[in-house]
Amino acid sequence: MLRSKRSEYTTAAVLMAPFVVIYGLLFVYPTIKMAQLSLTDAPLIGAGKWVGLDNYYRLASDRLFSVAVWNTVYFVILSVVPSTLVAMLVALGVNRLKGWTQSVVLAAFFLPYILPVSVVFRIWSWMFDKDFGIAQNAVQLFNNGQHLSIFRTIPLFMPAVAFVTVWWLLGFNVLLFIAGLRNISTEIYEAAGLDGASRWAQFTRITWPLVWPVTVLVFTINLILQLKIFDQVYLFANGGRVGATMVMVQFIFTEAFQMNKGGLAAAASVVLFVLIVVLSVVQFQLLRARGAR
């Protein structure tokens, strides 16, 4: 018996070893080095002297970093919840379709997800172009008949980028929700229908509770993804007031690759890492607790 267990442990260790080694080399070791670098005044490449927590004190008093943190949180608020809710509504509609119609509609929603961010940027920069953009017809209705440069207007910049991001990533979220909806047995709905339950009652009492784990997953994935927002903001703000639209990853990029301040950039990276871990764990636990109730 003891020999059998020892053999099982050995087999498990052998199977896990490649993952543990790769995980340690690609995540644990770089994370430790990043934390060490954040305590120095080193440039991007090369050694620096130990400065302790000075970089973190500098970040606390840096107005641009405060703007970057706020813009990141603001973007998460604008994109994560709408992305999750819209994806659920679309999935509910697509799931009611049958045959080739469902496949075509699902493919139409998923198509933007496979586009690279540069193509997404080009599409929507044309759509919102002040002079000939198609979307300017809708903008005129809310701007006294005048065209408006959406991505050069600071109050509209983050909502516009969040809208584009929701459109871009919607297809993947829809697929996750459809996978969850297809795991719900049709017999449950048939029994509810025989009992006289309305569609709203079926949604609130059957669909919503059973698809809640998928909702938590989609929300968590989007939260982590949008906290690391960089590409869309960097591209759409190119040539504009970059400081006013800066997000945390862009701040790290600027300090590291343009200002050659590796230590300060590492400190900002640690702050972002801690923010992602804390918010992800807290929201996951809260949503899971809500689902348990």
Major beta sheet, specifics?
A: none
User: Helix and strand succession?
Assistant: HHHHHHHHHHHHH
Structural category is mainly alpha
End-to-end separation in angstroms reads 42 Å
In oligomeric terms, what are we looking at?
single chain
What level of helicity do the residues show? over 70%
Average pLDDT rating? 86
How would you describe this structure in keywords?
293 residues; mainly alpha; 75% helix; flat
Describe the secondary-structure layout.
Elements: H1 2-37, H2 54-60, H3 63-95, H4 99-110, H5 117-127, H6 136-141, H7 154-182, H8 186-194, H9 199-210, H10 212-227, H11 231-236, H12 248-258, H13 262-292
Helix pairs in contact: 1-13, 2-13, 3-7, 3-10, 3-12, 4-7, 7-10, 10-13, 12-13
What does this protein look like?
This protein is an all-alpha fold and 293 residues long. 75% of the residues lie in helices and 0% in strands. α4 runs antiparallel to α7 and α10 (212-227) packs antiparallel against α13. The longest helix is centred in the first third of the chain and has 36 residues, at 2-37. It is flat and about 75 Å long.
In short:
With 293 residues, this protein is an all-alpha fold.
